[in-house]
């Protein structure tokens, strides 16, 4: 009997030991799986950040040179008889003078050995075609220059600019590069005489688009994006917020409101180009909104952004504890007063965050705006939502489709500007959420 009792106790101890080992082994497996999962998450974050850093470095490396522009110091003679034959120096005379011919004559005097017609055309390619407009603006700003010979820094052509920046390999055979051998000789001479320098390119941040890459700027697209987003915000924000409040706080719960909710969620997943087709068919052809104008683009983007704002608004209203509503109703407040004075102020930070994210999405859209004609070549700066314009993503698309080498750096620089705006808008959303969010 004693032996049987001892044997049973031994078996019980062994069983308990085996159970403890099994439990410990299971815990080790679970902890190991948890550690692996954590490392998988860290690896995913590292890969994502690596690709992001690679993208930023690649775009920055190609686009930083767009903020620099090569210029040539040219002694230009401004004869009064050619600029203002009447001697009155009227605005019409100053505007219509042949400034391009004066620049060409100045280049010929700088290089008198160039006598053949073909070589002269190559010589004229040292300066940008837009240099004539620069000279015209200088004369109109300071008419006292008329009748004098003045040395002016004028913009070099895009090929010379790329050569100075190192984008064109001068060691290649002449037939393999756009800059000819005689141009290389002239460039070396200008460099030796300190007549060729690289300056900060203010035009890139202050001008509109141009066929000449050295004269192209981003400011017209920035203004177009600004007017478009203003129209989008004015239309989408109040409509989205009011719709979210009604559906969440006042609408009866029936199959009709369920159908509306399902369709709102479906609209959030509709491809953006569908909204562009809607804008083309309805807003342009039926309502007659001006093509290529921010007012049309803003209406289209407002429709596209509405579902995002409504969904974010409803989620923010749901996050407010029911006790807030019950307390307000308990002291005699109406449903409207409860929502207006108690629920909405607490939900507004989340609504603003969702609205900013929706606006950031609208800022980066291209396809719907191409459908309504905002891909047009626009030189003049827009002054209102009704003026023809383009937007930043479409401007980047236009430059990326251009064959000139100098447009590559401007495309990358435009991407950097767009990324800066997107980062600012997303940071604003995060800061608003952190600043005003309340946890219950």
Summarize the topology.
Blueprint: H1 2-63, E1 68-77, H2 80-83, H3 91-96, H4 99-110, H5 117-124, H6 131-141, E2 149-155, H7 158-164, H8 181-192, E3 196-200, H9 219-250, H10 255-267, H11 272-284, H12 294-318, H13 322-330, H14 335-363, H15 367-371, H16 392-400, H17 406-436
Helix pairs in contact: 1-17, 4-6, 9-12, 9-14, 9-16, 11-12, 12-14, 13-14, 14-17, 16-17
Task: Explain the overall architecture.
- This protein is mainly alpha-helical.
- The protein is built from 17 helices and 3 strands.
- It has 3 domains: 2-64; 66-214, no CATH class; 219-436, MetI-like (MetI-like fold, Orthogonal Bundle), CATH 1.10.3720.10.
- Strands 2-1-3 form a 3-stranded antiparallel β-sheet.
- Helix 9 (219-250) runs antiparallel to helix 14 and helix 12 crosses helix 14 (335-363).
- The mean pLDDT is 87.
Q: Classify the helix fraction into a percent range.
A: 55-70%
Highest-level CATH class of the largest domain: Mainly Alpha
Strand order of the largest sheet: 2-1-3
Strand fraction equals 5-15%
CATH H-level superfamily title of the largest domain: MetI-like
- Count of individual domains: 3
In short:
This protein is mainly alpha-helical.
Task: Give keywords.
440 residues, mainly alpha, MetI-like fold, 3 domains, 3-stranded antiparallel β-sheet, 65% helix
């Amino acid at each position: 009997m004693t032996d049987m009792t001892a044997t049973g106790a031994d078996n019980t101890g062994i069983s308990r030991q085996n159970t403890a080992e099994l439990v410990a082994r299971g815990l080790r497996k679970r902890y190991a799986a948890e550690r692996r999962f954590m490392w998988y998450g860290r690896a995913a974050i590292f890969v994502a950040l690596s690709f992001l850093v690679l993208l930023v470095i690649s775009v920055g490396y190609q686009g930083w040179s767009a903020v620099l522009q090569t210029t040539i110091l040219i002694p230009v003679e401004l004869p009064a008889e050619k600029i203002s034959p009447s001697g009155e120096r009227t605005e019409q005379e100053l505007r219509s003078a042949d400034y391009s011919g004066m620049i060409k004559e100045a280049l010929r005097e700088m290089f008198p050995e160039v006598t053949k017609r073909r070589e002269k055309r190559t010589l004229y390619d040292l300066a940008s075609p837009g240099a004539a407009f620069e000279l015209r603006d200088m004369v109109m700003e300071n008419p006292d220059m008329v009748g004098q010979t003045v040395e002016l820094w004028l913009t070099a052509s895009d090929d010379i600019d790329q050569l100075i920046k190192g984008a064109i390999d001068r060691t290649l055979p002449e037939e393999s590069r756009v800059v000819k051998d005689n141009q290389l000789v002239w460039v070396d001479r200008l460099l030796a005489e300190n007549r060729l320098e690289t300056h900060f390119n203010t035009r890139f941040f202050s001008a509109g688009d141009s066929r000449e890459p050295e004269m192209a700027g981003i400011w017209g697209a920035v203004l177009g994006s600004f007017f478009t987003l203003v129209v989008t915000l004015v239309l989408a924000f109040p409509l989205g917020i009011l719709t979210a409040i009604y559906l969440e706080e006042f609408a009866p719960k029936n199959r009709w409101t369920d159908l509306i909710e399902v369709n709102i969620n479906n609209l959030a997943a509709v491809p953006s180009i569908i909204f562009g087709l809607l804008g083309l068919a309805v807003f342009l052809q039926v309502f007659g909104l001006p093509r290529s104008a921010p007012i049309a683009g803003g209406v289209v983007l407002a429709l596209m952004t509405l579902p995002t704002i409504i969904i974010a608004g409803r989620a923010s209203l749901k996050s407010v504890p029911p006790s807030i509503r019950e307390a307000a109703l308990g002291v005699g407040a109406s449903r409207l007063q409860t929502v207006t004075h108690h629920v909405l102020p607490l939900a507004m930070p989340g609504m603003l965050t969702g609205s900013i994210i929706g606006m950031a999405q609208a800022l980066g859209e291209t396809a719907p705006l191409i459908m309504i004609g905002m891909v047009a070549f626009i030189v003049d700066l827009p002054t209102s939502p009704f003026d023809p314009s383009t937007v930043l993503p479409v401007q980047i698309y236009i430059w990326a489709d251009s064959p000139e080498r100098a447009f590559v750096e401007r495309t990358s620089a435009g991407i950097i500007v767009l990324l800066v705006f997107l980062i600012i808008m997303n940071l604003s959303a995060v800061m608003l959420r952190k600043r005003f969010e309340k946890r219950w």
